[in-house]
Design brief:
Pfam families: DHODB_Fe-S_bind (PF10418), FAD_binding_6 (PF00970), NAD_binding_1 (PF00175). This protein is an alpha/beta fold. The chain folds into two domains: 103 residues, Translation factors (Elongation Factor Tu (Ef-tu), domain 3, Beta Barrel), CATH 2.40.30; 167 residues, Nucleotide-binding domain of ferredoxin-NADP reductase (FNR) module (Rossmann fold, 3-Layer(aba) Sandwich), CATH 3.40.50. The strands form three sheets. It has a seven-stranded antiparallel β-sheet with strand order 4-3-7-1-2-6-5. It has a seven-stranded mixed β-sheet with strand order 11-10-9-8-12-13-16. A two-stranded antiparallel sheet has the order 14-15. The longest helix has 14 residues. The chain is globular and about 50 Å long. The two termini are 26 Å apart. The structure holds flavin-adenine dinucleotide. The site of flavin-adenine dinucleotide has 24 residues, from strand 4, strand 6 and helix 2.
Length: 283
């Protein structure tokens, strides 16, 4: 149970300065923000910040890269797709040099440390690739600690691909198999065509790989099931779930999913823990 002082610290946003904005696609931008008084240890891959925009609202946004320690604070990276009121406000109104509010980081994060020595599969669809990117960059920094790396990243079209400026560099990762795919053929596209679960069905994975999946829920459901049926241990298949959130700290109940709160118990869950809820529409 959280004490009232602890709760106060977690519910009052800190000011963060927007240091740089990168235009990724027509509806998605990446923000580098400086948060004073924080250290990078807290900013583990898979965790998220509650981003508060005065006059608009507050939304959960995942860390989309490893955070960097700076003098007296941390540089954190967020990638936002404009889908509704707050996210579109962020895209259209927030400029470099502006201050925004942030709380967190919250959530459990990907259990990447536990996967040391193992083969790793990273499967991302659309904006779901954002929370997976820190895993990939963590492995790139600690290459010797992990086995073979499989990456399958899918977007609707070539123009919807995030991080175009670094995608090619993933292919230089030793002992890796990198797949970029789009939903439908497009002029000039030289990568693969097909949905992420279909690509997973085509590649030769080792059954003791640890899998980290994020994307539209239907994609996570089909991909996890496919990997499970292929023989992977459901305790080693992880998905990051998205639900509407308010408090971010397991008090309000807005993000309830089965008997879990996505903000506090997740957002990362093993397939073993959530497969029965993922089968039910509308939870
Ligand atoms: C842990 C977590 C991490 C996230 N990380 C990212 C990220 O890195 N980048 C990013 O762009 N987005 C991320 N999201 C999603 C993001 O929080 C939502 O897109 C945002 O809250 C939408 O708010 P809005 O005010 O812009 O849209 P609204 O105006 O509230 O809604 C627009 C439309 O989206 C639907 N919608 C809104 N929120 C959700 C939701 N959580 N689940 C399902 N449908 C929803 C609404 O029903 C409506 O149809 C994350 C969500 C969670 C829970």
């Amino acid at each position: 149970m959280l004490k009232s002082e602890e709760i106060k610290k977690k519910v009052v946003p800190n000011a963060a300065e927007v240091v740089e904005i990168i235009e990724e696609t027509k509806d998605t931008k990446t923000y580098k923000i400086f948060i004073k008084g924080k250290v990078s240890d807290e900013f583990r891959p898979g965790r998220f910040l509650m981003v508060y925009l005065k006059g608009s609202g507050e939304i959960p946004i995942s860390l989309s890269d490893l955070a960097q320690d700076k003098d007296n604070g941390v540089l954190a990276i967020l990638t936002v797709r404009g889908v509704g009121v707050v996210s579109q406000y962020m895209l259209s109104k927030v400029r470099e040099g502006d201050k925004i509010g942030v709380r967190g980081p919250f959530g459990n994060g990907w259990p990447i440390e536990n996967a040391r020595g193992k083969d790793i599969l990273i499967a991302g669809g659309g904006i779901g690739f954002a929370p997976l990117r820190p895993i990939l960059n963590y492995i790139r920094k600690n290459r010797k600690d992990f086995g073979k790396v499989y990456l399958v990243y899918g977007a609707r079209s070539p123009w919807d691909m995030l991080y175009k400026y670094e995608l090619e560099s993933y292919k230089e990762l030793p002992n890796s198999e990198i797949h970029f795919t789009i939903d439908r053929p497009a002029e000039g596209w030289k990568g693969e065509v097909g949905l992420v679960p279909d690509i997973l069905g085509r590649i030769k994975l080792s059954t003791d790989a640890w899998s980290f999946i994020c994307g539209p829920e239907i994609m996570m459901k089909i991909a996890s099931k496919r990997l499970y049926e292929f023989g992977m241990d459901p305790k080693r298949i992880f998905v990051s779930l998205e639900r509407r959130m308010r408090c971010g700290i397991g008090i309000c109940g807005t993000c309830q999913f089965g008997h879990y709160y996505v903000c506090k118990d997740g957002p990362v869950f093993s397939y073993k823990d959530v497969y029965r809820y993922m089968e039910v529409e509308g939870i």
